[in-house]
Amino acid sequence: MREAAITAFFSTIATTIPTSLAIADLGCSCGPNTLFAVSEIISIVMDLYNAKKHELPEFQLFLNDLPENDFNTLFSYFLPRFQEKLSEQMKSKYGVRAALACFFNGVPGSFYGRLFVPRGLEENKGNISMARLSPPSVLRACYEQFQRDFSTFLEYRGQELVVGGCMVLTLLGQRNDDPSSEEYRQFWELLIIDLNEMVTEGLIEEEKLDSFNVPYYPPSPKEVHREVEKQGSFSIDCLEVFEVNRDVFEKDFDPNVVSEEASDKMVNA
Ligand SMILES: C[S@@+](CC[C@H](N)C(=O)[O-])C[C@H]1O[C@@H](n2cnc3c(N)ncnc32)[C@H](O)[C@@H]1O
Fold first, then answer.
1. Does the domain formed by 2-108 have CATH 3.30.470.20?
2. Membrane spanning segments where (predicted)?
């Protein structure tokens, strides 16, 4: 069935042969079976590309399971053996012990929810998260993802708590309502500046930077309020905003004071 599905997929895209393929194994577990399906898919793709004399694509492999899955053993024990087997396979098919461009990603989380990047981030060129220059559609997509995630979270906790029970939530957020505000920018823009410089220096491809996104949304107190009220399972007794101390050596940190040197500290950390 896998072979038929992949062959059918390639026959529909005959004109633009992909140079990069993503494979996701949902519920991959950790054991000798884990990389079996992935290995078979790669082998089928190799044969298809080989038959058409195309250069092999690079593979992005996403291994998903619940967070309790033993990802450490998976990556430290099973992955090197899999890679060894893959290079033997390359040798038998291509006669060379060439390395295949295979990039592995662990995706811990339940497949009953979204596991990958939210829809609507395709336009976020030159950025990896919401930023000053991100188009409004990107800010909206991140906000909508936050609304969906947070209300689902509240809904389940609402079902689990006894009537009259309480919950204390600590979450990363920001004071300001504007998701592209100065306060928020400090966090990611430092990284974005470096990544864009790496593109200029030819160390990473612009296309890769454009397609990479961190689906992270720091809600403001007003947005948290709005979602809690809308969802309806909880009411808020108390909501406080405090600064995070990013400098582990700083002794006189006051969580109620907004630090102007936060960016410097983050760079040095
Ligand atoms: C029967 S095992 C299959 C393992 C492997 N895919 C195989 O074929 O041998 C099912 C796996 O699905 C995982 N799983 C169950 N519910 C899940 C969920 N909601 N999200 C992600 N993984 C889940 C389990 O942790 C388990 O590792």
1. no
2. none
